[in-house]
Amino acid sequence: MNLDQKVKSMGDHSGAAVAAPFQTYEEAVDWINGLVAFGIRPGMERIQQLMQRLGHPERRLKFIHVAGTNGKGSTCAFLTKTLLQGGFSVGTYTSPYITKFTNRFQYNGEDIPEETLLALANRLQPLVEEIAQSGLGSPTMFEVSTALAILYYAEVSYPDVVVWETGLGGRLDVTNIVHPIISVMTNIGMDHTDVLGDTIEEIAREKAGIIKPGVPVVSTVTQPEAIAILKETVERNRTTLYLAGEQFTYERLHSDEDGQTFHFQGPFRSMDINISMQGEHQIANAALSMMTLEVLRQYMAFIVEDDDLRQGFKETFWAGRLELVQSSPRIVLDGAHNPEGAEALAKSLPQIYKYRKLNLMMGMLANKHHDSYLQHILPIVDTLILTEPDFRKKLDAKALGDIVEQVREQYAKRTLQIIIEPNWKNALEELKSRTEAEDLGVVSGTLYLIADVRSSLLGLSDSEKGW
To answer: In what order do the strands lie in the sheet with 270-275?
Structure first.
């Protein structure tokens, strides 16, 4: 049965004619995005109900479950590209997307076809309605997207392995419906504190909720209190932890504007690896991915030849992460939106680029730790352009300006110039006009802003962007 036949057969298993709720891809996406109104509601009951009604397709797949505060997307990209290079078929489920809704459901590096997404949405809609009428309330947008991803991989594309990124947290995140072959933890930082808790220990406990009995864990977590929770959770689940600094190490050997090289030392072997992605934090993500691949190789027969391994790491790319999108003037995009991201960005920019003045355009959502973000980024900025993302949870540019003024004296250069321009398109023009040949322009903050700016600068016409 080819892909078209599979998709046609998904709508109705009884053979009776059933009117499809949606006729077009756009209608299906509008329906899924419309479920955003139900918010982010941590909990597993609705996704369990969906999976039960579908016959538990998630049980037929092998998952690499990736959690953490920063670096999840880049780690997923390293794993996907290297496994593909090694000859495996790979599903990749990530969020948020940068360009188009279909980006979040990939098979072998390609987006889900629009007609497949339409067929799967038509299959899910009546089940979502059933659950909505129950005491559980309607499944959320992320729950329906996760169910759609599982159906796509289990019943349409059949990948050897699925690289599976958590949405928020871990323990009560709907992606936790799966039982993975390995669990991966990037780092722990102060993000989504309104949901996950406002201490490193609380956030670590939520994220460690993806750890399952007997499933190995790989992590680059650094804080002692977070490591303690990881080790305690691993011990309780009678499994093995591969922790950076203990079971494996990594050291940067070289970096320039074309990329960087690092030395990886693991329990099974050591290797020098070259990556094109910029920033010291990307070495941590690459080393984490390498250790994950080493465990899969050693214990689960996921063999990737050394040449393919090196090529996979070298060719990995992830949009909106220290991405130079324009060279005249030079403009770099980076989706740093929390204190840890800002710290990595502030450290990386002077290491990678030579510039006279740094002009930074930023826009934020209303639920982030902006004081701590500014503490890291303000010391290196000459001109700060504050704007607003085109998104319902945006932080007003003037309100962001008020926060900057409160910390300006403590962290900023005395000569810092601040411009408030709520319209992001006008702000981008301001950034371009102020960034001369020897300067560097940077756009940072929420990925909802990065998505629009990237589409504008690269002339991408089908940008949809969103959670």
So the answer is: 249-256, 259-265, 270-275
Between 305 and 7, residue with greater pLDDT: 305
- Collapse the DSSP code of 89 into the 3-class scheme (helix H, G, I; strand E, B; otherwise coil) and give the result: coil
Cα torsion at 419, 424, 427, 429 (round to 10°)? 180
Are the beta carbons of 11 and 119 closer than 8 angstroms? yes
Quick one: which of 287, 292, 267, 291 has its CA closest to 275?
A: 287
Which helix (H) or strand (E) element contains residue 183? strand 182-185
Hey, what are 212's tokens? 């399952």
296-318 residues labelled b (16+ CB within 10 A) or e (exposed): bbeeeebebeeebbbbbbbebeb
Q: Which of 347, 338, 233 is nearest to 284 (CA)?
A: 347
Q: What is the pLDDT of residues 385-409, one digit of tens each?
A: 999 998 888 999 999 999 999 999 9
140-185: per-residue pLDDT in tens?
Answer: 999 999 999 999 999 999 999 999 999 877 888 999 999 999 999 9
A 10 A CB-CB count for 236 gives 11
pLDDT of 319 higher than 80? yes
Q: Residue 225 contacts by C-beta under 8 Å, 6 or more apart in sequence?
A: 200, 201, 204
Rounded to whole angstroms, how far apart are CA atoms 46 and 136? 7
Contacts with 54 (C-beta within 8 Å, 6 or more apart), sequence order: 127, 147, 150, 151
42: its two tokens = 């941590």
> CA-CA distances (angstroms) from residue 139 to 31, 37, 112, 132?
12, 11, 22, 7
Rounded Cα distance between 317 and 319, Å, is: 7
Please state, in angstroms and rounded to a whole number, the distance separating the CA atoms of residues 163 and 327: 33
DSSP letter assigned to residue 178: S
**Closest C-alpha among 67, 122, 57 to residue 94:** 67
DSSP 198: S
Amino acid letter at 450? I
User: Would you state the structure tokens that stand for residue 215, as one six-digit string?
Assistant: 């499933």
